[in-house]
């Protein structure tokens, strides 16, 4: 069973080394739509793959980091990076280019890491990210699967290689969110009191 949650943000970037003259030389922005698709082979006590409400915490915060921010490749010109940091309070440094393809990989990577470190409280089992689709324009998107995240030919992704500006992290519900993720600390979902108890069937 698969479920899909849509997230939206506005973001600016330059995509170095690409074919388009406009994209590789000038700062420009897009209205992104992100489709996060989760899957599981069983349902929780609420008979859901994963409660949509649970996606409004850490995963929403990490994706919302991109909103009204400028993203840059950490290998870009140091003067350009310094200018981004000086003139924008919201910025993210990425170990890969800020293309739609890499946005889909990065968001898959972050969401997957958060789910792996989450203590489930409502009978969830085997919940994992199936795919992430990053819509950059009305006509173009990039779609990522697990094999793409693990494909180092597309760029190695390590939690320690991302950097967020102070304003970005200050707007998370927990400003220590990313530090906890790096440290491998558990994210604990709220506990649930059963309102309806399923009948157990058996043979006599």
What is the ordering of alpha helices and beta strands?
EHEHEHEHEEEHEHHE
Number of helices: 7
**Cα-atom radius of gyration:** 19 Å
Overall body shape:
globular
Largest sheet: 7 strands, mixed
Strand content: 25-35%
Strand numbers in spatial order across the main sheet: 7-6-2-1-3-4-8
Q: Name the poorly predicted regions.
A: none
Average per-residue pLDDT, rounded, comes to 96
Question: What is the SS-derived class?
Answer: alpha/beta
Q: Can you walk through the features of this model?
A:
This protein has 204 residues and is of the alpha/beta class. Helices cover 27% and strands 25% of the residues. It has helices at residues 21-25, 58-64, 78-87, 100-116, 146-149, 166-170, 177-183; strands at residues 2-13, 28-39, 69-73, 91-94, 118-119, 128-135, 141-144, 163-164, 187-188. The strands form 2 sheets. The chain has a 7-stranded mixed beta sheet with strand order 7-6-2-1-3-4-8, sandwiched between helices. The longest helix is centred in the middle third of the chain and has 17 residues, at 100-116. The radius of gyration is 19 Å and the shape is globular. Belongs to the PTPS family. QueD subfamily. Keywords: Lyase, Metal-binding, Zinc. Its cofactor is Zn(2+).
């Amino acid at each position: 069973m698969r479920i899909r949650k849509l997230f939206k943000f506005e973001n600016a970037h330059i995509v170095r080394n690409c074919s388009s003259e406009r994209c590789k030389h000038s700062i420009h922005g897009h209205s992104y739509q992100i489709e996060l698709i989760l899957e599981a082979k069983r349902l929780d006590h609420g008979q859901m793959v994963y409660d949509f409400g649970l996606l409004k915490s850490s995963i929403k915060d990490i994706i919302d980091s991109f909103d009204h921010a400028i993203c840059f490749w950490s290998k870009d010109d140091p003067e350009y990076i310094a200018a981004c940091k000086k003139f924008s309070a919201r910025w993210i440094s990425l170990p890969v280019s800020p293309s739609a393809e890499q946005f889909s990989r990065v968001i898959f990577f972050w969401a997957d890491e958060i789910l792996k470190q989450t203590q489930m409280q409502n009978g969830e089992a085997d919940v994992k990210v199936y795919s992430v689709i990053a819509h950059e324009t009305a006509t173009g998107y990039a779609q990522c699967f697990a094999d793409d995240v693990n494909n180092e030919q597309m760029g190695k992704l390590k939690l320690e290689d991302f950097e967020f500006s102070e304003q970005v992290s200050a707007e998370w519900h927990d400003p220590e969110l990313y530090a906890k993720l790096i440290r491998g600390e558990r994210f604990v979902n709220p506990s649930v009191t059963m309102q309806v108890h399923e009948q157990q069937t058996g043979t006599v």
